[in-house]
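<instruction>
Derive structure tokens from the sequence
<data>
Labelled lines for chain and fold
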Amino acid sequence: MQHFTRAAALLACLAAVAAPAAAQDAFPTKPVRLIVPQTPGGASDVLARIVSQQLTKKWGQPVVVENRAGAGGNVGMEAVIAAEPDGHTLLMSYVGTQAINGALYKNLSFDPGTGFAPVATLATLPFVAVGRPDAPFHTVPGLVKAAKAGRVTYGSAGNGSVNHLLGEMFNRAAGVKMVHVPYRGAAPALQDLLGGRIDVVFTSLPSVAGQIKSGSLRPIAVTSGQRARSFAGIPTIAEAGFKDFDVNPWFGLMAPKQTPAARVARINRDVNEILRQPEVAESFAAQGAQPYITTPAEFAGVLKNDVAKWGAVVRASGASVD
């Protein structure tokens, strides 16, 4: 009887220790907000909705996509910084917001490169140069020839956006000077492209996948070193003789800076399990994207390298918003 009492007491003690740990590991305990700092319909939004649906199934809690566009993504980032660092608010980040904005905006109250906890990369996704079907050029050599012969304009989502910097990178690689026309977002740039007011736009594949398939826009080339699986008919810029041209932006999830490492690791593990699912890979491929799996530490290393790389591009372009 004495042995039984001691055993019962020991089990009670173990249960008392385990209970707080179990409560601490419980996640999520309420709906999760996934803040997309861009407008609906772009690459960030499309990928966020694919992942949010899968996380909702996995976690048994709604993962709600919330678009907070403005100031090149800074409005959405500020909302995440102000949130409770418990994993229930996540940021849909990409190379533009995290690796470019720090060099572009001189008076930010936070550092996009170091002010968040990297959680998990989601995908890499090439951008594509598109023009109208009636344009006098349909290939990279044709675009280069037209730019050398006269005035060619390219639109972007604004000064210092990935769209803008890709155009400047192409100018330097090809030895041409296309004229930059900034807009307040990629959507109005594409509208003016369709309307014949500009000649080219470098944009994410998801934002023009429908127009490419319908034939209302004609793809010229993708910016990545390899062709996109579901858009294999579109050549790369590298294939046109610019062998070092390889820009394949990443997208990922970040959390408020003080989010506990154990919570970050838990979300990373669950996200990576989702990225390994064939149905997710197929959904990404339909957008031209490819799953990109990393640990939080690996993601932090990627971000550090890209802050340096894209910061140099911003400075070389002379782009500034402030």
Notes: The longest strand covers residues 116-124. The domain at 32-125+249-317 is CATH 3.40.190.150 (D-Maltodextrin-Binding Protein; domain 2). The chain has a mean pLDDT of 91. Residues 85 and 259 are 4 Å apart (CA to CA).
